Amino acid sequence: MYDVVVVGKANIDYLVRGPRLPAPGQSLSGDAFQEAAGGKGANQAVGAARLGARVAMVARIGQDPRGDAVLAKLRDEGVETRFITRDPEAPTGVALCQVGASGEKQILSASGANARLTASCVRQAAAAFTSAKVVLCQLGVPLDAVWEAIRLAKSVRAMVMLDPGPPAPVPDDLIARIDVIRPNASEARMLTGIAVSDRASAREAALDLLRRGAKAAAVQAGEDGDVLLSGGREVWLPRLEVKRVDATGAGDAFASGLAVCLAEGKPLEEAGRFASAAAALSTTVLGAQASLPRRPAVLELLSRAQKS
Ligand code: RIB
Asked: Residue 270 belongs to a domain with what CATH number?
């Protein structure tokens, strides 16, 4: 029985931290290296499990040692992996993550087997969906697989959440089937054409997504925080003050926090505040999966923020 089903990407991340991000054509020496399981889908599955949900993951990985490592990590975290298929021809996806001294990041990835997750792979995982409250998708896998996940979610009346990363165009008829869409600033720009940099532009992008049929939108407002819009109601989630070392995985922490609260039946506003605290905490630790917080830490940060 799973509360949250995640359909998305699983990678191995190779992360190097340096004094800043290299400019095009520049070589720089870094001071820290990390090799770890990653990928937006797997990160969000692990994030949701650490926050207390029963989670199943639907993904495609290679028949290679990197794939073994992805599976081992998910199992360690209590995520159900039997709906993950292995591709005999394509390798497990990889991501090269670069992190600068003030926590800024850039990522270049090669999809490998992620690009071969088909609608039929998702259909074969139908048993995972029967008890789902939230189905959480991203765009690191083909759109056909996302469509199938939405169809299965609707058939069991689960909520559909989309984290539209990495940035890619999404047709309006798909947006119209989303209960909660959660783009960061660059994804919001790709989806709406609006250059999101602050609260006002994030609101504009959220309104556009609602006009196109999404029921709720949580748009990251650059460095400021997040705007949550639903049914004429706006909630502002200011960025919580923490000592930031790496933004990799912050969006995944936000998405998993939101998904877990919504699966528990919490109101969107409360889910947004929880998600925002989870995202803030994830920026205090180097790496994506390594930084995803557990529930007590999130609750503690929320209570500190309320007192200050
Ligand atoms: O969101 C962070 C993730 O994006 C990394 O773990 C990396 O794998 C990329 O897909």
From this structure: 3.40.1190.20
